[in-house]
């Protein structure tokens, strides 16, 4: 029985290649989908045999064959540009939302599967119910990264709708530092965020295009905390909840994969003007300089560097001032605790993907990072006071080059446990 099981497993692997270098690209999508089904059928067959295996050796060999086929199917889907959809859910804890339950999905695909070098597009959607220090809240978050026409056209978007409580300390480093989160800093709010960039590749190799920013932040004024009542910026803009901005971005991008780069760099400049002519309640301007660099040390070992500078000028409402912290910036620091007219940060992250017995990359990985940042206003300067963040995380490649990210971050007085899709940068 052992011999027949192993012989069948070997025959399957000879028919269905398990090494990524041996997998073909099918010109017909139907053929590619039929091959995916063949992998599923083979995995199901070996699963059934594993249930009936009589010796430990047979079970181990069958388990290894199943794992090989599962990785092979994912590599086949990636090489042939087929769509994938996965659901993810579980508990998490962040400084901003407290304990929460998240449920979401990740859909990835190629807009033109015949373009073998084209990156996979992705759309993620998360629904979150949380219980922080205030009432039960909810939020809906979606991120879109779409690539068209041999990567000559790109669209990136972020949508967030929330009805949650939030701590508000005020503007400036001293305001964020002087007291911990409590009922004296807690307010309820309804908010909507929509950010969109449409970039076109030029003949010179860089991308440029229009950018749209929409921010709506409406606080519940029936029970404002002392920090909001005493803050001049809050009082000035509490009845001006809508900011609409138009602008542009220009960037150079040599990364191999934008959502999980192993090599290359990204240099981006973005300028946004918020104006009543666009329907905005407020008039101001913002700019961002964003640089990321990725260095492959060896297979599965990557150093990632992130540097970002945010600038703002004019009648900038508290809810759109440059800030640090959250799931993508100095993780572990409460997003919005420190906000002012300028912000800068630098983060270094080591990313390690574990290898399988056959020397190819597994779906499992780990990361460690450390970063520093600073905010400044009209009467202060950058680096006058420093904020920091450090932590570690686990990675699982749910879809080709698209990870489930679980991070545990720490900073001065804050900590956070984050569950989401794709890398922080």
In words, what does this structure look like?
This protein has 425 residues and is of the alpha+beta class. It contains six helices and 16 strands. The chain has helices at residues 2-15, 29-51, 56-79, 173-177, 226-229, 232-237, and strands at residues 84-94, 98-109, 121-131, 136-148, 153-167, 186-201, 207-219, 242-253, 264-274, 284-298, 301-314, 342-355, 361-376, 387-399, 402-411, 414-421. A 16-stranded antiparallel beta sheet has the order 1-2-3-4-5-6-7-8-9-10-11-12-13-14-15-16. Strand 14 (387-399) and strand 15 form a beta hairpin.
Please count the beta strands (DSSP E, at least 2 residues each). 16
Strand order of the largest sheet: 1-2-3-4-5-6-7-8-9-10-11-12-13-14-15-16
Low-confidence stretches are none
Indicate the structural class: alpha+beta
Order of helices and strands: HHHEEEEEHEEHHEEEEEEEEE
Q: Helix and strand layout, with pairings?
A:
Blueprint: H1 2-15, H2 29-51, H3 56-79, E1 84-94, E2 98-109, E3 121-131, E4 136-148, E5 153-167, H4 173-177, E6 186-201, E7 207-219, H5 226-229, H6 232-237, E8 242-253, E9 264-274, E10 284-298, E11 301-314, E12 342-355, E13 361-376, E14 387-399, E15 402-411, E16 414-421
Antiparallel strand pairs: 1-2, 2-3, 3-4, 4-5, 5-6, 6-7, 7-8, 8-9, 9-10, 10-11, 11-12, 12-13, 13-14, 14-15, 15-16
